[in-house]
UniProtKB/TrEMBL annotation:
DNA polymerase III contains a core (composed of alpha, epsilon and theta chains) that associates with a tau subunit. This core dimerizes to form the POLIII' complex. PolIII' associates with the gamma complex (composed of gamma, delta, delta', psi and chi chains) and with the beta chain to form the complete DNA polymerase III complex. GO terms for molecular function: 3'-5' exonuclease activity; DNA binding; DNA-directed DNA polymerase activity; metal ion binding. This is DNA polymerase III subunit epsilon. DNA polymerase III is a complex, multichain enzyme responsible for most of the replicative synthesis in bacteria. The epsilon subunit contain the editing function and is a proofreading 3'-5' exonuclease. Its EC number is 2.7.7.7. Binds 2 divalent metal cations. Magnesium or manganese. The gene is dnaQ. The keyword Metal-binding applies.
């Protein structure tokens, strides 16, 4: 699977870096402490541009060259038999570094993943990651009140991000989930509305030329004596006319 996705990466590797380009990633390991000989067994990376996935991703399993403890297998479901024929991290690290370039990396509880990746890089004689790393765990801790659970699962539930596609932890699946959570931590899709530069267009009814004929104003003349007498006679003949009460 990793090789197939790597082929997709090669086809798009000429795409120039752009502002807002970041890489959400996650790892699965044989344990909690690289200092105790634990290794990375899976990595998943999702490319995002302006917080939205671009469709480019990287995924690979690794042979850790050691036995998988049961407690770790219970978390991600990866066992010795499945990982036996997978490549070593040292066979793939150049692909990973080329894929992310110098762009910022995004991870949940990022210190854990950073520590493991740096340990793997030391094994192959490379220096530690130089990328800026964004920790969504720390973002969530600052965003929500103290005591709020900010695990990836808890944040998915809080933001109504479906966990239906995941029964066990997986690096690529969790990277996709985290990309959605990361968007919500920045305000969701609503943040894309740039209200500061939006102008409201008011439709003004079109004024059509008036083609109707213009009639001359009526000129009222002064009534003659006969006309006044006829009017007064008409009024006197009316019963209870208000004019007779004046």
């Amino acid at each position: 699977m990793g090789k197939q996705i790597m082929g997709m990466f090669n086809q798009g590797s000429a795409m120039p870096p752009a502002d807002g380009l970041q890489y959400v990633f996650d790892t699965e390991t044989t344990g909690l402490h690289p200092s105790q000989g634990h290794r990375v067994v899976e990595i998943g990376i999702v490319e995002i541009l302006d917080l939205l996935p671009t469709g480019r991703e990287y995924h690979q399993y690794f042979n850790p060259q050691r036995n998988m403890p049961k407690e770790a297998e219970d978390v991600h479901g990866l066992n010795d038999q499945f990982l036996r024929d997978k490549p070593l991290f040292g066979d793939c690290y150049e692909e990973i570094l080329e894929f992310v370039g110098s762009h910022p990396l995004v991870a949940h509880n990022a210190k854990f993943d950073e520590r493991f990746l740096n340990a793997e890089l030391r094994r192959v004689g490379r220096g530690p990651l130089q990328n800026r790393i964004v920790d969504t765990f720390e973002i969530a801790r600052k965003k929500f009140p103290a005591g709020t659970r900010v695990t990836l699962d808890a944040l998915c539930k809080k933001f109504n991000v479906s966990l239906a596609s995941r029964s066990l932890h997986g690096a690529l699946i969790d990277s996709h989930l985290l990309a959605k959570v990361y968007l919500h931590l920045h305000g969701g899709l609503e943040r894309k509305l740039d209200l500061g530069t939006t102008t409201t267009k008011v439709e003004v009814p079109q004024q059509h030329e008036n083609t109707r004929p213009v009639r001359p104003s009526r000129v009222l003349g002064v009534p003659s004596a006969c006309e006044l007498e006829a009017h007064n006679s008409f009024i006197r003949g009316m019963k209870n006319a208000i004019w007779n009460k004046a």
